[in-house]
Amino acid sequence: MTCSDQEDELLSTLPELPSVPSGLNRRGFLMRHAAIGAAAVMTGTTWTPEARAQQAATEAAAQQAKNEAMKDASGLKMSNTLSPDLDAVRKSKGPVMTVADEFYKVGPGPSSSHTIGPMRITYDFYQRCTKLPADQLAQATGLKVHLFGSLSATGKGHGTERASLAGLVGKEPATVDPRFLDEMIAKPDRTYPVRLGGKSFNLSLADVVYDAPKGEFPHPNTMTCKLMAGDKVLYEQEYYSVGGGFIEWKGYEPPKKGQPKYPYATMKELRQHAERNNLSIADVMMANEVAVSGKSEEQINAFLDKIAGAMLATVKTGLSYKDDVLPGPIKLHSKAATVWERAQDNKYESDRAIAMVAACALAASEENARGHLVITAPTGGSAGVMPAIVYALTESQRRVTPEKIREGLLAGLAVGYLCKHNATLAAAEGGCQAEIGVASGMAAAMIAQVMDSSPQVIENAAESALEHHLGMTCDPVAGYVQVPCIERCAFGAVKAWTAFMVATNEIASRHRVDLDTTIKTLADTARDMNPKYKETSEAGLAQNLTLC
Ligand code: SF4
Asked: Do 418 and 520 form a contact (C-beta atoms < 8 A)?
C-alpha cells in the first residue's frame, strides 16, 4: 500500500468530512484534521468541531507556506515553460518534418545541447559577422558570449565555454579536431586569433561569460552572442540550444522543405501508412526523407552509412582506452575495455551477449566524456546507446549487412522524430527520460527493424524501452556527463535489447500500451518534473554524492 493509499484509507474513516477552507490544499487540510482528532483521542483532549477545523486550517496553512518557500528556494518557480515562439514548439503541430541529417549529428561530446549546440551557435554567429558591412567590422574589437539558464548552471562540466570559443574562432562541430578542444583544457589562458574583414583580434575563454543560471528565458538553454566595439555592442543575436544539437535564434524561420509522402504526427499514423501500403517502417521513413529533404535515396543512404561508420568508430576508439582517467573532478576511471575483455573470456561465456552490448555502450559514452567526436542519437549524453546496438549487430556473429543497418537507423529515427515532435529531447526540459529513454526506444526499434519485425512489433519494442525510463531525472554529478550518464547508456542499450526480446515473444496485438501514449506521458512527466532534476546538477546524485 502506498502512502497515498494509506492517507485515503484514513480519510475515508472520518465520520463526516469538514468543508475545506478556500485557498487550502484539500488533502493537507483533511490530514491535519484527522491527525488532531486522533491525538485528541490519545490525550483525552476535547475539541469543538469548529475549533478543531480552525486548528487544522492553521496548521495546514503553515505547512503549505513552508512547502511554497521550499519550492522557491529550490528554483521550482523558475520558468518551466517554453516560449510559444520557438520553432521546436510550433513544429509540434502538423506532420513530422525533421530529416536525418538534422537529427544524427557528429560533433564533440559531452553534450549535444551544451557542447554541440553552443558550438553550432557561435560558429553561426561568426559566419554572420563575416557578412557584416566593412565599416561596421572596422570598428570591431572583440566577440562576447553570455550563457544563461542550464547552459550557465552546468556548462562548466560540459565544456560549454570551450565549445563556444571554438565556434567563435571558426571551428565546426563535425570537423573540429578533439585535440584542439583538449588543448583548451590544458592551456585555459591561451588566446586565439580571429579575423573579421580587415580586423583581427584575440579571443580567450574569458570572452565566454557564465551569466544568470535562473530567470525567465524563452528556453532553458539560452545564450547571446555579441560583436563588440569596446563597451559598445555593434551586433547581437539571441540563440537557443533546443536539444539534440538543434539550434534556433530569435526570429528563427525554419528552412523550406518538401511535403512528406506519408504525413504522420503519431506512431499510429506512421504504422497505418506502413500497414495499408504493405511497407516496412523503414520504407515509409525513406520515402518521407526523399520527399522532405529533396535528396535522392542514394544520398540518404550515403549519409546513413557515414553515421553507422562514425558510430562504429566511437565504439572502437572507446574500447582502445584501458583504465584511463576521464577529465574532470570525479576522477572516474574508464571501464569499457575491462568489461569487453571479460566478455571474451570463456569462463564468462553465459554473460557474453549482455557484457558486449554494455561494453560497447560504455566505450562510446566514455568517448563522449573525453570530449571526442560522438553522434547525437538523440543527444551527446545518450550517445553510447545506438552505437552499442550498431556494433553488436554488425561486429558480432550476426554480421548484419549495411542495408539492414540503414533500415534500422531509419526505424530509430521514427521514434526519435516522434519524441522530438510530441515531447522533448532536451534533459533541460524533460530530464534523462528524454535522453537515455528516447535513445533506448530508438535502439529497440532499430533491432526490431533489422530483424524484419512487423510495424506493430517495432512500435511495441520502442514503447517498452521508453516506458521503463519514464520519470528518470537528470542529475550529472559535478555537471560532468559521466555519473550517472556513462553507465546509464549501458543500461539503456541492454534495456533496448530486452524490450525487443519481450516484443518478439508476445502476441503483438495484446501489448496494452501504445507508443503515442508513452510519448505523451514523457511530455506530461517532463512538464511536471521539478526543475532541479532537469540538468541543473542541484539535486539527486549530484547533490548527495561527495567527491573527495
Ligand atoms: S543524467 Fe542523463 S540526461 Fe542528464 S546529462 Fe547524464 S545522460 Fe544526459
From this structure: no
SS3 307: helix
On whether the CB atoms of residues 326 and 109 are closer than 8 A, the answer is no
51 CA to centre of ligand 1 in angstroms: 51
H or E stretch covering 240: strand 232-243
Written as nine digits, the cell of 383 is: 550517445
Q: Is 289 in the pocket of ligand 1 (CB under 6 A)?
A: no
Three-class SS state of 29: helix
pTM for the whole structure: 0.77
Cβ of 469 below 6 Å from ligand 1: no
Nearest CA to ligand 1 atom 4: 474
- What distance in Å separates the CA atoms of residue 40 and residue 36, rounded to the nearest whole number? 6
In contact, 440 and 448? CB cutoff 8 Å: no
Nearest-CA residue for atom 8 of ligand 1 = 381
Neighbours of 219 (CB within 10 A): 29
| pLDDT per residue as tens digits for the range 494-504 | 999 999 999 99
Q: How far, in Å, is the centroid of ligand 1 from the Cα of 203?
A: 30
Q: φ and ψ at 212, to 5 degrees?
A: -60, 125
Transcribe 442-499 into DSSP letters.
HHHHHHHHHTT--HHHHHHHHHHHHHTTTT--B--GGG-TTTTHHHHHHHHHHHHHHH
pLDDT score of 140 more than 70: yes
Q: If you take atom 2 of ligand 1, which residue's CA is the nearest one?
A: 432
Question: How far, in Å, CA of 385 to CA of 394, rounded?
Answer: 15
Question: How confident is the model over 79-97, as pLDDT tens digits?
Answer: 456 777 777 666 667 999 9
Q: Over the range 65-79, which residues count as b (16 or more CB within 10 Å of their CB) and which as e?
A: eeeeeeeeeebeebb
Tens digit of each residue's pLDDT (9 = 90 or more) over 242-254 = 988 999 999 999 8
State if residue 436 touches ligand 1 by the CB under 6 angstroms criterion. yes
Binding site membership of 429 for ligand 1 (Cβ less than 6 Å): no
**β-bridge pairing 142-147 and 208-210:** parallel
Q: Whose CA is nearest to atom 1 of ligand 1?
A: 474
The CA-atom distances, in angstroms, between 426 and each of 148, 214, 266, 458, 523 are 15, 17, 20, 24, 11
